[in-house]
């Protein structure tokens, strides 16, 4: 954590005490909507932007996301001169209700972070938001978390401090200049009218000093916080834990679709789903938030490229699977080899135009079949559709890669590559499963 944030933590740590009680453990399942930020259903929807413009801004968000993740994975990786652009970093939004009486909140759903937090009043510094701030004093079920209690000690010791009345004060930074500081609390959180989706004692951050570097985007003003779905102990996923059988999944609809994507907790078993494949889920102790997979190679037609042995991707668990990054990110040499293979197998040349800021090829979609692109994860061959990996501009006959390389970045499997699959994270079984699915129907 930045020393500055730590100072803020000490400054703003004078509030009240309460008790925490654990939830009873029962198995339950429920499904909620995930709304892509650029979908017509999103409060951030801007109808004046063309698909190409949207894809282009997704590319630049992916870069800042990848830099952010790299910083958290390895603080020494990024030179100080690299500045992450001021970009709103969430891709999907979810709705929930908090407190008694329930207050509706709209937040970023993020598999790349852990804490659930909401902007609270009284606020020292908050990102501009349209709905009134959440006021814990108006919720009859809100309790603060004492600093010696379990939820507080689940925070890394650099992320917490004991307030003057023994309450848990947290500070959580996101690898760039974004952060949230506040009081750890417990309240009733409800994700839909489904009884299975009501939780009486969820721990969350009541943020009274928040800075999202992209909050200057006025369309952001519906956003009131973040729901961390990472693997760390305070994420929503971990808190629901045994109650959801330590499983969740999502099914993402194609770009521009009018349907919502779905986020399912306590998914039914995927074992008998047609075409399902599974690969080990790897969680590393130095970065407990991230979900890693092991990618052995990518084949295009009959040929294959493999991540190079003497690179950073040599480790077992060489790619993060993430829903908060649009583009797939690869380390430079592997990316270049992949581009060479695409040119060879598709018989295409790199185009001069690059409206999306990524590599585009001149490509005339005739009746000839598109070659098969397969991601070979350990134990799971995932066959990708054209639209998982490319954006095709029919008018310009341009086929643009939905992949980027970031010099300092950690490889990330982005959400475009996951569209059209049910992707299940089974933390108990230690695996991630992919099943080709029409997500508009499921
Ligand atoms: C609640 O969860 C159980 C267990 O997963 C499931 O059988 C039931 O259908 C769920 N109820 C609703 C209303 O979704
Ligand atoms: C759950 O959310 C619904 C809105 O979908 C709300 O009407 C209801 O009161 C909430 N239930 C609880 C127990 O807070
Ligand atoms: C989405 O809905 C709008 C209005 O209902 C319609 O004009 C548009 O064609 C739909 N788009 C898709 C991709 O179905």
Automatic annotation (TrEMBL):
Pfam families: TAXi_C, TAXi_N. One of its GO terms (molecular function) is aspartic-type endopeptidase activity. Residues 1-23 form the signal peptide. InterPro entries: Aspartic_peptidase_AS, Pepsin-like_plant, PEPTIDASE_A1, Peptidase_aspartic_dom_sf, Plant_Aspart_Prot_A1, TAXi_C, TAXi_N. The keyword Transcription does not apply. Keywords: Aspartyl protease, Glycoprotein, Hydrolase, Protease, Signal. The keyword Signal applies. Residues 92-435 form the Peptidase A1 domain. GO terms for biological process: proteolysis. It comes from the Eukaryota. GO terms for cellular component: extracellular region. Belongs to the peptidase A1 family. This is Peptidase A1 domain-containing protein. It comes from Psophocarpus tetragonolobus (Winged bean). The lineage of its organism: Eukaryota, Viridiplantae, Streptophyta, Embryophyta, Tracheophyta.
């Amino acid at each position: 954590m930045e020393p500055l944030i730590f100072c803020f933590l000490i400054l703003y740590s004078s509030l009240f005490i309460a008790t925490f009680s654990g939830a009873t453990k029962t198995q339950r399942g429920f499904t909620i909507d995930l709304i892509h930020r650029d979908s017509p259903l999103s409060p951030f929807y801007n109808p004046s932007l063309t698909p190409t413009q949207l894809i282009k801004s997704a590319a630049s968000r992916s870069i800042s996301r990848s830099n952010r993740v790299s910083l958290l994975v390895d603080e020494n990786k990024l030179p100080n001169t690299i500045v992450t652009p001021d970009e709103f970093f969430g891709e999907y939004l979810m709705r929930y209700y908090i407190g008694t009486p329930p207050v509706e909140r709209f937040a970023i759903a993020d598999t790349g972070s852990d804490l659930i937090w909401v902007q609270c009043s009284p606020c020292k510094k908050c990102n501009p938001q349209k709905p009134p701030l959440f006021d814990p004093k108006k919720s009859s079920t809100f309790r603060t978390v004492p600093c010696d209690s379990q939820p507080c000690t689940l925070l890394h010791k650099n992320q917490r401090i004991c307030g003057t009345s023994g309450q848990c004060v947290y500070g959580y930074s996101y690898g760039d200049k974004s952060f949230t500081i506040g009081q750890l609390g417990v309240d009733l959180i409800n994700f839909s009218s489904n009884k299975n989706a009501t939780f009486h004692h969820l721990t969350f951050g009541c943020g009274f000093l928040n800075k999202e570097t992209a909050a200057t985007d006025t369309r952001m003003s519906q956003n009131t916080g973040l729901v961390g779905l990472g693997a760390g102990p305070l994420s929503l996923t971990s808190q629901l834990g045994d109650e959801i059988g330590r499983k969740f999944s999502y099914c993402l609809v194609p770009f521009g679709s009018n349907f919502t994507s779905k986020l399912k907790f306590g998914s039914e078993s995927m074992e008998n789903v047609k075409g399902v494949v599974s690969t080990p889920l790897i969680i590393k102790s130095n970065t407990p938030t991230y979900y890693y997979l092991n990618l052995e190679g990518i084949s295009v037609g009959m040929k294959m490229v493999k991540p190079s042995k003497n690179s950073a991707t040599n480790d077992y668990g060489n790619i993060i699977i993430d829903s908060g990054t649009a583009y797939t990110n690869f380390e430079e040499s592997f990316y270049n080899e992949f581009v060479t293979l695409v040119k060879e197998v598709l018989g295409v040349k790199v185009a001069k135009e690059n409206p999306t800021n990524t590599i585009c090829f001149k490509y005339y979609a005739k009746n000839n079949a598109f070659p098969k692109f397969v991601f070979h994860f350990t134990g799971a061959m995932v066959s990708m559709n054209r639209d998982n990996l490319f954006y095709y501009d029919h008018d310009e006959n341009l086929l643009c890669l939905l992949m980027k390389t970031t010099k300092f970045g950690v490889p990330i499997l982005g959400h475009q590559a996951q569209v059209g699959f049910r992707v299940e994270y089974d933390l108990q079984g230690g695996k991630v499963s992919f099943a080709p699915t029409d997500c508009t129907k499921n």
